[in-house]
Design a protein that fits this description.
Largest sheet: 12 strands, mixed
Strand content: 35-45%
CATH superfamily of the largest domain: Fumarylacetoacetase-like, C-terminal domain
Helix content: 10-25%
Distance between the termini: 39 Å
CATH class of the largest domain: Alpha Beta
Oligomer: single chain
Structural class: mainly beta
């Protein structure tokens, strides 16, 4: 099932997507997931071309992973972490499919980073690894946009990762996919720049959910971005960045200069 969040006729709704047809949902899918109830449709129907897709959820936080693919750690000349290396992006950085990534006026180099995103479906606190997957609503695409020079200058990552528009997310939440061996790629203006498989993650999804929920409570709709593979690179105004993940979909965003 592909769960979307969209706007149609000036109304923001959740829905499910079937063969280019959008069917509205009668209730918040996260409430249904928490309560163990079926997703009920509200009777509304639209063509996909008639709606605007929004970010598929509204997380209170995006918990991101640094250095979770060995080749990426090697390309940035960093040692592999002994435990998952966490940082957080604010909710104000999130944009949806088709929205523009805005280059800050102060930026010198802004990079793309393709990632598999885990969407938490119910409140998770101190979750054992063996139970971790039961807290997942589904998976989507994520672009961990980063101002590389600021990251280097600051010695920590908050400013470089947190600009408005630096967390593209979408296009939908895929609920029926095995995330353990998916191909993920970045295309820049149609050219492949990153290509890897999620089977190459150093810390797998169950480990991440357990570890992170032992640090902070994960709320319904929160997102875990599982880390980027090797091949990161810069973007310029006018570029089109596409994050493609096998069996999930494509997140496409244009890059624009700040006005």
């Amino acid at each position: 099932m592909q769960i979307i969040r969209f706007t149609a006729k000036s109304e923001i709704k959740y829905g499910v997507l079937y063969n280019q047809q959008v069917q509205g949902l009668a209730a918040d899918p996260f409430l249904c997931f928490q309560n163990g109830t079926a997703f009920q449709k509200d009777g509304s129907s639209y063509l996909l071309s008639e709606v605007k897709l929004l970010s598929p959820c509204l997380p209170s936080k995006v918990v991101c992973l640094g250095l979770n693919y060995r080749p990426h750690a090697q390309e940035v000349k960093e040692a592999l972490p002994a435990n998952p290396l966490l940082f957080i992006k604010p909710s104000t950085a999130i944009i949806g499919p088709g929205d523009s990534i805005i280059l800050p006026k102060s930026s010198k180099r802004v990079d793309f980073e393709c990632e598999l995103a885990v969407v938490i479906g119910k409140t998770a606190k101190q979750v054992p690894e063996t139970q971790a997957r039961s807290y997942v609503l589904g998976y989507t695409c994520f672009n961990d946009v980063t101002e590389r020079q600021m990251q280097k200058d600051d010695g920590q990552w908050t400013r470089a990762k947190s600009f408005d528009t630096f967390a593209p997310l979408g296009p939908w939440i895929e609920t029926e996919v095995d995330p353990d061996d998916l191909k993920l790629e970045t295309y820049l203006n149609g050219e492949v720049k990153q290509s890897a498989r999620t089977s190459e993650l150093i810390f797998g999804i169950s480990r991440l959910i357990s570890f992170i929920s032992g640090v902070m409570t994960l709320l319904p709709g929160d997102v875990i971005a599982t880390g980027t593979p090797a091949g990161i690179g810069p973007v310029q105004a006018g570029d089109i960045v596409e994050i493609k993940i096998e069996k999930i979909g494509t997140l496409r965003n244009r890059v624009e200069a700040a006005v």
